[in-house]
């Protein structure tokens, strides 16, 4: 099942993230998630110097990257579909005395934001729905020559099962090309007394991400499959050094999109 116009995906995603907001904050507060060990340090490297740039953190969650960019001198707007996440992001920015504009909205369609108003758009592990629409909206919001930085869980993780051979962690990949709506339960653990929360997302192959960039007139500048860049729990480090957990892409918006 692919996400289509008849399925209220926006409503489902908003509901699941509002339900998961508290447990997600607890999960990330440990500082030992795969995001902290791999994705966040790699994203910092990918972003480079953001001073004086107009930055959109699309799918900003609790505002970690938005605050990072603002502290580095960027003019930042953060958008997330879940009001609970935006509330936490505002609180985080206030605690750090950072001036960031936060909005509740769907990153597939942000009509309140003007075309070409950003130098940099960040989409950090936030593509749960229509990939092509998210990339197209990012293109609209970027100035010519602006950069789009995407990170996501590597597709082999979302279509694989953990497996060990010769005492080393590995992954058995299956149904890689099955572009379906996928589900899991309590992806960040379960809070005491909380009911199970179903988490859904649209699965894409690695090639789909590059196809979406190409069809929307982006030129890829850098691609990363990062290894751990921080210390962490031995089992997590061993796993992360065996196969990629995340991938990241930095691409540049070229001029006029070929309408042919």
Topology readout:
Layout: H1 9-29, H2 34-47, E1 54-58, H3 64-71, E2 75-80, H4 83-95, E3 101-104, E4 118-124, H5 131-141, E5 142-153, H6 155-158, E6 160-165, E7 168-173, E8 181-185, E9 198-202, H7 206-215, E10 218-224, H8 234-240, E11 246-253
Parallel strand pairs: 1-2, 1-4, 2-3, 4-5
Antiparallel strand pairs: 5-11, 6-7, 8-9, 10-11
Structural overview:
- It is a single chain.
- The protein is of the alpha/beta class and 260 residues long.
- 34% of the residues lie in helices and 27% in strands.
- It has helices at 9-29, 34-47, 64-71, 83-95, 131-141, 155-158, 206-215, 234-240, and strands spanning 54-58, 75-80, 101-104, 118-124, 142-153, 160-165, 168-173, 181-185, 198-202, 218-224, 246-253.
- A hairpin with a 2-residue loop joins strand 6 (160-165) and strand 7 (168-173).
- Helix 5 (131-141) runs parallel beside helix 7.
- It is globular.
Low-confidence stretches: none
CATH H-level superfamily: Vaccinia Virus protein VP39
* Largest sheet: number of strands, sense, barrel closure: 7 strands, mixed
**Portion in beta strands:** 25-35%
